[in-house]
Amino acid sequence: MKMNNKTILLLTLLLIICGSMAHAQAPKLSPQRKQAIDSLALEKVRDLSKYISIIGNKDTPYSEASRVMDRAEELFAPDSEMGVSSLNSDEINYYKVREYFERLIALNYDKVKISWYDIHYISDLEPQPDGKFVGVITIYQRFEGSTDDGFTYKDTTKKDITIYVERKKTQISGRTIQFWDVMLGDIRVTETSA
To answer: What is the pTM assigned to this prediction?
Structure first.
């Protein structure tokens, strides 16, 4: 089928109009709302940092570590994965969140210290067609593990954390209240160094 220039122009205009309408329907965040969401996202990342430090600490009783794992899992969107790397290998392994925490508890060190620093957004929140927003926060993780016989391993890993922001509803005293919530997604390793 041969199209003339008029038909092509009409189809192009139609696509532009439809695209503009779809973009116009995407939710907008006021600067104040965006600032509140950014603060909540950074707070959840800091909470995760504390939880990982507690879970990885060999002095933490298993019952306490298990309770903290439950709390930490609540921060994540379903099926999220966390990346693990090592200076001894170029391979990066990804584990479901709970499995990552259980592997962290089982590390074969007598002392483990994990700290996060330089936590900041590297991408602004981008609207998605389903009404959610997605962004990325970068962190640096310092890992130090040692055994009683003197073996020590240390590395620093740069990780990107996907952030999902969506509008949710809850019932309070019979009234429906809408609010914005932040969930953490996959944590991808981007760089590992000594």
So the answer is: 0.83
